[in-house]
Amino acid sequence: MEDRSILELREMAKEYKYDFKDPYLYKEIFEKGLDEDKVIKISKIKGEPEWMTEFRVRAYRIFISKPMPTWGNTELLSQINFDDIHYYVKPQDDHKTSWEEVPEYIKKTFERLGIPEAERKFLAGVTAQYESEVVYHSVREDLAKQGVIFTDMDTGLKEHPELVRKYFGTVIPPEDNKFAALNSAVWSGGSFVYVPPNVKVSIPLQAYFRINAKNMGQFERTLIIADEGSEVTYIEGCTAPVYSSHSLHSAVVEIIALPNSKVQYITIQNWSRDVFNLVTKRAVAHKNAKVGWIDANIGSLLTMKYPSIYLIGENATGEIISVAFAKTGQHQDAGSKIVLAAPRTSATVTSKSISIGSGRASYRGLVKVYKEAVDSKVNVQCDALLLDPESRTDTYPVIEVHQPKAAITHEATVSKISEQQLYYLMSRGLSPEEAKTLIVHGFIESFIKELPMEYAVEMNRLIALEMEGSVG
Amino acid sequence: MLKIDNLIVKVKSMNKQILNGVNLEVNKGEIHCIMGKNGSGKSTLGHVIMGNPDYEIIDGEIYFNNELINEIPTNERAIKGIYLAFQNPIEIPGVTLANFFRYTTKKFYPDNIPYPKIRKQIIELLNKFGIPEDTMRRYLNEGFSGGERKRIEAMQLLVYKPKLAILDEIDSGLDIDGLKSVVKYIVEYVQNNPDTSIIFITHYSRLLQYLTPDKVHVMINGKIVLTGDKSLAKEIDEKGYSWLESSMAVEN
User: Are B48 and B62 in contact (CB under 8 A)?
Assistant: First the structure.
């Protein structure tokens, strides 16, 4: 823990290292814009069962009938031009299970991103998605033998139709919100994970999402089912090159944590600064299940993401730990949603945000306690750190309690880096920038502690990157 | 090493003049002691030498190794070899002592010394100053006792090896045994590193039971009013500061 270095990593962090573009080599690229025919065409290309085609069409109709959200950063949201987006981009080759088979240019991209290097080191399995389609995928043999399914969503639908049909869209139906409806209509790629009863996957499964094309929409769809008594950790990372026009990333992630299971979902989102990141993530926790969302939002132009946990079984517990970095020009509108619907359920939410320059970080949270949730408890802690006078933070908590025997706490703090802290660290030789980086590192220490080692190192590197040139 | 000419300083946050023309010269290898009551300006002097941005120099000069440092930022002063052990060290939440040292030692140790080696030295020094090793995992100054803070502030002198170290009220918060050993290690260090100069800032003379400074200065109302040797401290111990104040009143 204590030997993690930031300083030695910052040398590597001089620029947004993911800002490289591959030449356009695509097998299939849809014209910009969306209509019902295109939705059906996606389903046809993928050779999907009829029920999925119908699901998509229904979702598309919901998408067009739903207005844009009237809350959040409506000004930025209004800049999304749904007619100026490619909804489906298929890379040249179908997905591979052997790294050698992946086309050279994509391989090079992922090698630059550290995949499959990361896999070799410690991961149980990797899925890499390039544009709309998964291009590489592997899962460790010993896990496959135990019945663990870790594949891309399209393959999941083909090979495990009953399982997918039983759970797909049950946690987040298309009706949930406009962007969930859009995803349901045009989804492509994403991961499908099933962990059989009592199987404990001790090392993380990883997915990597990459947008390369300009004006691209990426709509991956992930479904994780942890059967009774099982355990699994899933990690996703996301990057894109920098373009002057916007790309849209609108994912849906559904988690079903069956009784006594344990699921942890880790995100390190580092989209380039032109990506709209509008994601719906929700988990259902059954009896005695434990669900954790560990969520870092660093990149994107606008993120609107509120990982949710519905605690529907007795004694289920949930934890949401999030960090948001908002630099000048960025708005991180992140938060959480906790719904307690069974006795003795409990949840904690820890949200940390850092606003730099004129960056804006918002916490939007809902805690809802149904009358069934006797002796339940929720603790929400939101801490905001403002680095500059023009930095901004807002907190929008909503608490709805229908059970008097529930203990709910909500605490929010806003702090600035004090002159005295800076001075003290500078008196030990640190430059103002290094001092601020160290203070920020300390501010999110409780988050970093939750990450596996490799990711903690990556996270430290990203912090150093964010802080680069942030001292005016 | 250090030369201060007619230094006039005000605290920005209180808009109040604290130093009213301080003159001080500290040569290589000397140990000085600045004594004074609370509010006499002695801590301010330490912070101004370190470059605390809350203090504004209205007039006067500070020279360090013949270089005017009035405008030089704090971190550069540190790297030039000035160290201040804070009277009230600042808490940095979430930053472990280990991480803190990992950052700061980079500034003072050559690149070719691997960090584990530096870390080993730090742990030895912590032990020497009576701080258990697992303190490395605690957050900087958060929940530290007064004694722990002082020991760690003093111990850092031996980590960064400055040319000039100012120790601000290192004696408050430490019990007699603690003070005795802390001062002993610092004096030992100066004996082994004869180019190092030290300024002890203190209210009480008990510190002087464990060392013999080259010079003792007394500060009153933002001025050094009297300079002498160890016997001056003794006199203050017996008579308090009031006799000096009254003699000053006569002078004025």
Answer: yes
Q: Among B78, B84, B95, whose Cβ lies nearest the Cβ of A441?
A: B95
| A263-289: average pLDDT | 92
Helix (H) or strand (E) holding A293: strand A290-297
For the entire predicted model, the pTM comes to: 0.84
Give the orientation angle of helix B97-105 with respect to helix A432-443, to 10 degrees.
Answer: 160
The Cα–Cα gap between A126 and A55 comes to 28
Nearest by CB: B84 against A7, A427, A438: A427
Residue B136 is nearest to which of A2, A5, A421, comparing CB atoms? A2
The ipTM estimated for the assembled molecules is: 0.96
As a whole number of angstroms, the distance between CA A365 and CA A396 comes to 6
Instruction: Kindly indicate the confidence band of residue A330, based on its pLDDT and cuts at 50, 70 and 90.
Output: very high
For residues A461 and A467, give the distance between their C-alpha atoms in angstroms, rounded to a whole number: 10
Number of Cβ within 10 Å of residue A101's Cβ equals 13
State how far the Cα of A122 lies from the Cα of A32, in Å rounded to an integer.
Answer: 40
Interface test with B, best of A6, A422, A423, A460 (most B CBs within 10 A): A423
Whole-angstrom distance, CA of residue B155 vs CA of residue B125? 7
Query: Left if phi > 0, otherwise alpha if psi is -120 to 50, otherwise beta: which for A349?
Result: beta
State which residue of chain A sits closest to B89, comparing Cα positions.
A424
The upper half-sphere exposure of residue A317, i.e. CA atoms within 13 Å in the direction of its Cβ, equals 8
Specify whether the CB–CB gap between B151 and B129 falls below 8 A. Answer: yes
Q: Angle B97-105/B146-160 helices, nearest 10 degrees? A: 20
Of A2, A419, A428, the CB nearest to B96: A2
- What's the sign of the alpha-carbon dihedral A130, A132, A136, A138? positive
Contacts of B70 (CB under 8 A, 6+ apart): B57, B61, B62
pLDDT of B122-181, one tens digit each? Answer: 999 999 999 999 999 999 999 999 999 999 999 999 999 999 999 999 988 898 899 999
CB A131 within 8 A of CB A91: yes
Show the DSSP H helices in A151-308 as ranges.
153-159, 161-167, 178-186
Q: Please report the pLDDT score of residue A451 as a whole number.
A: 84
pLDDT surpassing 80 at residue A72: yes
Report DSSP state, residue A241: -
Structure tokens at B133: 């090793």
Chain B neighbors of A432, CB-CB under 8 A: 73, 75
d(CA A352, CA A382): 6
Other C-beta atoms closer than 10 Å to the C-beta of B120 total 11
For residue B160, the chain A residue with the least C-alpha distance is A428
Find, in chain A, the residue whose alpha carbon is nearest to that of B46: A427
Q: Which chain B residues contact residue A438 at CB under 8 A?
A: 92, 95, 99-100, 103
Q: With contact defined as beta carbons under 8 Å apart, do B32 and B207 qualify?
A: no
Instruction: Give the list of residues 6+ apart from residue A223 with CB closer than 8 angstroms, or none.
Output: A153, A156, A164, A167, A168, A190, A191, A192, A193, A253, A254, A256
Single-letter amino acid code for the residue at A135: V
